[in-house]
Fold these 2 entries.
Entry 1:
Amino acid sequence: MMSKKLLVDVDCGVDDAQAIMIALAAPNVELLGITCVHGNTTVENVCKNTLRVLQACNRLEIPVFKGAAKPILGNSINAGNFHGQDGLGDAPDPNAPSLDMVQKEDAVSALIRIINQNPGEVTLVATAPLTNLALAVRLDPSLPSKLRGLYIMGGNTESRGNTTVCGEFNFTADPEAAYIVLNDYQCPTYLACWEFTCYSKLSWEFCDAWLAQDTDKARFMAQIFRHSIKASQSEHFEKEFVAGTGFISCDSYAFAAAIDDSFVKESDHYPVSVELTGTHTRGMMIVDTAGFMNKAHKAFIMKKVDMEKFERMMMAALK
Amino acid sequence: MMSKKLLVDVDCGVDDAQAIMIALAAPNVELLGITCVHGNTTVENVCKNTLRVLQACNRLEIPVFKGAAKPILGNSINAGNFHGQDGLGDAPDPNAPSLDMVQKEDAVSALIRIINQNPGEVTLVATAPLTNLALAVRLDPSLPSKLRGLYIMGGNTESRGNTTVCGEFNFTADPEAAYIVLNDYQCPTYLACWEFTCYSKLSWEFCDAWLAQDTDKARFMAQIFRHSIKASQSEHFEKEFVAGTGFISCDSYAFAAAIDDSFVKESDHYPVSVELTGTHTRGMMIVDTAGFMNKAHKAFIMKKVDMEKFERMMMAALK
Amino acid sequence: MMSKKLLVDVDCGVDDAQAIMIALAAPNVELLGITCVHGNTTVENVCKNTLRVLQACNRLEIPVFKGAAKPILGNSINAGNFHGQDGLGDAPDPNAPSLDMVQKEDAVSALIRIINQNPGEVTLVATAPLTNLALAVRLDPSLPSKLRGLYIMGGNTESRGNTTVCGEFNFTADPEAAYIVLNDYQCPTYLACWEFTCYSKLSWEFCDAWLAQDTDKARFMAQIFRHSIKASQSEHFEKEFVAGTGFISCDSYAFAAAIDDSFVKESDHYPVSVELTGTHTRGMMIVDTAGFMNKAHKAFIMKKVDMEKFERMMMAALK
Amino acid sequence: MMSKKLLVDVDCGVDDAQAIMIALAAPNVELLGITCVHGNTTVENVCKNTLRVLQACNRLEIPVFKGAAKPILGNSINAGNFHGQDGLGDAPDPNAPSLDMVQKEDAVSALIRIINQNPGEVTLVATAPLTNLALAVRLDPSLPSKLRGLYIMGGNTESRGNTTVCGEFNFTADPEAAYIVLNDYQCPTYLACWEFTCYSKLSWEFCDAWLAQDTDKARFMAQIFRHSIKASQSEHFEKEFVAGTGFISCDSYAFAAAIDDSFVKESDHYPVSVELTGTHTRGMMIVDTAGFMNKAHKAFIMKKVDMEKFERMMMAALK
Ligand SMILES: [Ca+2]
Ligand SMILES: [Ca+2]
Ligand SMILES: [Ca+2]
Ligand SMILES: [Ca+2]
């Protein structure tokens, strides 16, 4: 497997942390930088959480950039409390790195600069509201054509929402950004959508074994993950899961697909967009299976992935 | 099985015809009347088609009522050409009954009158845009409380559309009516949605055997069905079907469920509504699996039905 | 002046009462009936208020019909408290007529019957949410062609709202009904819009003289009007008036125009419609001054009226 | 009068050109730069047009920056042909400056840099779709607090549109950007809206005298203005003007107000926003006269300006 240059955009909740740790453990990955954006928590918390994850993995040399604090229109939705108020399970961390370690360059400028410095080589992975990516393409319309590929966790395919009745969190938190990215990034695009991640869940037994590894990384994960595990098993959140509760590390699927081209076993290939104006459907992803939209560009929508490989990548992440 | 009083509202295309013929053949059904509405074709054609079906079955004593010519807001969508321009495959019928046989009373008044005359006894089946039902409940808000049950073919559960990218025909042809009916008919409500009918399709082999019966009814059906069979197998329509092409008699599932309480083997029970304002999702059914809408009334959404029973009812319809 | 057959649809608040009393006092008017609809208060209160007005004028022989209790979509807005909770200033009326005096026939059926019995002769005046009119035209599409004219109080021309930021009460209380009426009633249509009624206000001095008349009608009016006068002069409502507070009897302008063809001195003649989907503009009237909508039918939008005549009609109403 | 630092954002059509020439002629103005954006024509044409105006005034030392080529969502509307295809009347200009003279720095970065380098001193004038300003505030949320003031030509106050039935061009060409700017720029904000510019039009007689000045600037203006003058007097465009045709240099009012604090004689002071989701009203400005929106920040909406001063500034612009 050739080495891959990854640039990742996160709103570092617990599953972003898991996904980043997969990337840090992957032998073939060069992580060019991590851009942060509002989402699970404030963008300042996201920066801090990202630095904590890098610290836990002894990789603080990877540059972290602060991006948009608000969605395109400026109206933040409540992120709920699935990952805790601070996005990482509200676990105390007295030795957290200082925000001084965040780069002076802002995230959108960094995205534009890094992609232009590595034309055709960067795989962009976004597991957060897509505000940074949307702003970047409006400032530099040539950006998508310079990407190797774009991997997104977000959206939904069967109108099942986890944030509103039909809206998945990352898309609903900034519908305009999702619309811009799905319409303007005409590069190879791979989507790990909400229902897919539910159908591809891991067992709680795997989770136990995963966290039981005798490593600092596993102990870090156990600490930040406690809150979400409890939430996953609460009556309130159980109804949101499409096929029953379980260990669903949403963002990790997008990272795994970006890291390993053979990870995705089956996908649909359809034009996609985002509903912006619905009363119940604002933020819902639109999948045009029958060609009603007359749109040329199509995205790959993940349907089946190599779950054994996924478990191996997850295990390695905490080694 | 106790005898059932059915009142049915149709836009008599070919599948409405099939469904009506199932009801006419059912031993336990008393068909109180057929109300007609715009949809697959003009309401005048719908009346004529309904009379033709009754004639083919020697049941012209059943009263037929003409209802709304346009959806609530007045803007008709194009019905496409799946069932032919006239809704019954554009098959010549020189002996079609005259429109003089349609009742003088309008459909909405008839719905209100018949239901009030049979309080608690009428099972209402609607396999068309829901304009008549919506007008009736606004004129007589007590109507739903006097129904035994309401069976609807319409809407969708996975955002798969057959008329717009996310819109099923009956709901999209009059989204306001569908909204009114799903919100104001707080009686036991059973939905045969688009994806369900696709997943529950019959085989073309069954269709061949079905039409090969040596009866006048089978010959009538073969004639009016020819156009839709061909359309079903065209590249254009194939993409609209959710799980591949096949013999999908949408409206018949709603009738079968209304006729036989044991027909539905498995159903979901969720609050439902209709999106009215979306750019891509106007007319889409909303299924509130996780309780975001704080709505008390829930509909039964059919998931699995007794397909052997279905085949028997279909076969009997052409006997 | 020839005698005119008026049919009026009201949500009998205080200004509806004033308008009805103008019609009752007009020598050339035959009032065929009064249809009631939800709006300022419940449709039951509207029926009761209408009967009280007729009683105060000794005209209880005029038939009163009960219509829609809810707007087309079924979601009532709060009517505020401008006319009091009961719509007539919450003034005690121990001798109010019983609701038994309301006709058995419902309002929509009555509208259809009366207009069909008097083809080309009925002037319809609507000073309430347009639910009844919308239902009537969907049941009988020929209705508008049989009207002499339609006079409406409702809508706005400069995006000034009194109920929402851009929404006038009668239109915002049932936007779908207003849309249906403005699009389907292709008869001569005259609109007394919110800003026009504000620009055409009477002085409080006139109001004092008006109420000071030594008649039972004036005493009745003084009693039911007290609440609204106080509200008009409150800080809360003052901001809603377009050109300063004053005595604005909105509904009376539509009645005056219907009664006397020479009342309207100047009007615009433009296609009009209603916004249904805006976040801030749902219910706002759309005036197509420049021909963007390609719509043939145009409404007369009142701009200047004969204020001396208006004062005379008002004075006569309480004589 | 103290010297003023102006930064201006244009889509250099003919009225932008007139406005820029007013600023260049004003003795107290320091023009820090001109940022260009899509609108009347492509952003490339806008850059070229801006350079041509500067060349006509011998001021090519003023830096010109290229900004967004598309609105926030990416869907351009047709700019019509009021100012000609090239935005400056399609008048031949063989000596037009080369696009090489456009700065390397992009417009949004320039806006952020210049305002941060001159905290509290920059008066920003925007007479185009507000895409650049919207992107800038999302990248640097502190920007508005560092402005002396913001002057915008755009929006409407009485629901009169010149691009759609209720939409003014600059706002309708990028409703999301207008929304962002009106909500996020909480600095002193002054709006020259469409109806105001129509009510404040100059006479064609003034225009004749203005263009008859014996100067190169007047000859340049006569050449680029010919197309728009003819369009203004065409039947098609006449209907769009609110109070009859005339010489309406829309963008010049915003510039004049920015240049001279005593120019605005009367203004309203209300919260404003933009409708994003209406069928007919998308892009319409919302003026909250009665406090329905619970919004603290208010904009100054120009109502009356010093027309003598305006004529003097216009005359000076071509001297
Ligand atoms: Ca995430
Ligand atoms: Ca049907
Ligand atoms: Ca009223
Ligand atoms: Ca401009």
Note: Residues 216-232 of chain D form the longest helix (17 residues).
Entry 2:
Amino acid sequence: MAQSFGNIIRAGIATVPLTEFEIIERFFAAPGPQRSDVCLGIGDDAAIMQVPAGHDLVSCVDMLVRGQHFPEDMVAEDVGYRAMAVNLSDMAAMGAEPAWATLALSLPEPDESWLARFAEGLIGLAREHGVALVGGDTVKGPLVASVQMAGLVPSGTALRRDGAQPGDRLFVTGAPGEAAAGLALWQRGLRVPQGPAARLLRRFNRPQPRVAQGIDLRGIASACIDVSDGLAADLGHLVQASGIGAVIELESLPVSDELAEVADPMQARRYVLSGGDDYELCFAVPVRGLLDFERRARDWACAVTEIGEICDSPGLFARVCGEIEPLEEGGFDHFR
Amino acid sequence: MAQSFGNIIRAGIATVPLTEFEIIERFFAAPGPQRSDVCLGIGDDAAIMQVPAGHDLVSCVDMLVRGQHFPEDMVAEDVGYRAMAVNLSDMAAMGAEPAWATLALSLPEPDESWLARFAEGLIGLAREHGVALVGGDTVKGPLVASVQMAGLVPSGTALRRDGAQPGDRLFVTGAPGEAAAGLALWQRGLRVPQGPAARLLRRFNRPQPRVAQGIDLRGIASACIDVSDGLAADLGHLVQASGIGAVIELESLPVSDELAEVADPMQARRYVLSGGDDYELCFAVPVRGLLDFERRARDWACAVTEIGEICDSPGLFARVCGEIEPLEEGGFDHFR
């Protein structure tokens, strides 16, 4: 936009080899998966897609700022992967089948090697989930990546945060807290880890969004949220939206062997309750649906753990050794 | 995301009054227009919308970086307005009816007064066009605003860049170049202008996306693009996508009285051809559709000018005093 303005601002910058159009065309347009429901992809003022009859559209956006949402020295592939993963996790939380994404990318200069690796991480994960990158905007500025995603659900079947009822059982997928423990290792300077540290670091750098699990939970879960800000914080959002509360069985919280190897029991529990960025799903299942749920979850590629239940009293509570008390664990907030 | 990481990064920052959730709720959720096709808006992991049968979905994204796409000292209302306008202009270029938007906003601190004014500009324009803000992400970082928009067109009727044919007549709405002239005044320090300068500056700060005109051009225009990078540059994209060329009648280019007052004739023509940020539409109309087009354009609230025609030879050409020669005007590119 604003030619003269742009020229004035960038008067001191040497000519660089790639134009915006070349960047989009070369790194993001060609290698992505194609979908028959995309009438027009990258290259026009907007993309055109077909939404199948009998489906709702599910839409989300996430923005990642370098130094704020990922470490300054995170490799480009992992940044690209992350920008896609965080949105896939939102789709998972809604039970939606991810379909199309757009990318808004601000970067200081069109570094071809960085862009190629960023695109590899982003498009690689998109391909795994059948998501077509249909549009984007690349601009000059601080390193900020924002992906917007749209997905599909049969009408009226999307999972939400606000349907949980007292008595519903609470579950969490996988091993929450591992990513936060992995990040802590990274921040202590560990770069080429082995053994449990390697797995923890990989959980931070390559979180697996639970898309298939979210889709399986349609018609089963009464409420669902993805754990991006920490289990306690996100469960807090769920119970607030549902107007109820939850009791967590502290001794039921899943602590993986890897986590137990790098943290003492108290620290490990803190990671599980307050760590973020695992992109696990936390959800409530009414008692009448438990059998059906267990049947479906048997085929899941990830673990799932019952961690408590929904209660009448608003707020979060913990049960330890039979005693119930308020849960004292704040979540992550981007401005606190 | 990443609680521990976030805490470490922001260790030096004093506690500030607003959380991410409060920001979204307070400034963006409440005041926006409501639409009956939004099943679930701001407040969950994603929004849920209903796409009417027989319609295609049109999707775009634009990212604005402070100091790059708008001046450092632009007032917050105008920044918010601009973030919405640039996407509405993309919808206009597609002939789409804008429907839903999401906002990804990175800002250095949750300045309540700035946020209130930014939201006023953004939501005010959204309201004018019946667009519901259905989701968003607010994060801490450099000032970067990205709006994503989705709109609707009856299936198969979206305007594209690639349908122009030799012989089609070329048109542009309004007065391209005024915004660039207004920006130049701003950069020379003009803050409280009067007379023509006031109109030019307003054209930069409050561009009018041609949404109604784009919708009117469905079934009429063979190709359409919005003029964000400059008339010559964007027409260049259109002819490239259509695989043809265009001849511009230089003496037909619209130069408004205001533009003529602040620039000499050569300079004025340069603004018209190379200025950006007016968000006018440039489009081609086949000769057989001209009568129908003129009938519709009679009711438009903005001017429209015939500026040339599509030709066989690839590239852009200018006709001056009967002579045809290649047009020498580069457009704005974000990385050059």
Note: The longest strand of chain A covers residues 55-65.
